[in-house]
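BUG: 3D viewer hangs when loading the predicted structure for this chain

Environment: internal workstation, default settings.
Expected: structure renders.
Actual: progress bar stalls at 90%.

Input used:
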Amino acid sequence: MASQPGGQPTPGDVLSSAITAIESQPSISARIRQKIHLLDHELIGKGSYEQVGRQEQRRFRLELIVPVGEGMSSFQRIHTGKYLWVCEELGSQTTLVQIDVDHIRRVLAQRRGSHAGVGAGGGIAMPLEGLPKLLANLNDAFQFTSLRQGYLDQLGVWQLEGTWKPAVLAEWAGDQKAKVLAGEPINWKALPQQLPQRVVLTLGHDDLFPYRMEYLRELPAAGNPDERSAASTIATLEFFEVRLGGPIPPQRFVYKPGDRTFVNGTEAYLKQLGITDAPPPPGLHSKGPAGVQR
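Structure tokens produced before the viewer hung:
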């Protein structure tokens, strides 16, 4: 890694090294915890993440269970190679979506060099290519200018902090785009509540694994719109009990819908990435309505 004066590596080089390290792992398995703060409520999801393979051979499985009121909501995202399956269950309602992975890759390859694929949330959701792409999205969307050393529990870590790159934020700023590009202050109240302003990334000092990602939002202090209040965390993604390079049964990356109802969500996925003019995937098909009562 390159170093700043005094021998300290630069934030950008630490993050680039982390992306390379995660890309090179033959497998990853970990427990995960996700916290989302919404309208004075905190939702805490717990689950697991498993990944095998590199680049286009990569497969992954993400599972989360989130208590909602008196019930439970479950979420699965299973990348089988050909398709990404997304299953959500809330009470008696189940939604199953099939996404054509090859078509998404072709569309993104045609737009290489643009900001397509970063997403309005700056990479909060697990993307099509799994954890390595999540880190790459952060690198594409945010300029990391702060680097500190510290500890996460007993683990030595690097902590990086970044803010939006203007060219990326401008795509989501609506009528404030010109202000963003000119470096002028913008009205964050006019932007989606869950759009972060800053991100804090905590990497293992030795293995460079992303053990924690925090997304922060600042709001004006009460009674004084020109004074900034302390940053509020709007979302946190944590990995623990991490195992790198161990065996994972291949059956974990197989999904067969059987008689379950599903819809093709390929076009909807592209729209979430800000792509609205892509051709439809070949052989677009669904099986039944968007949801099914169980």
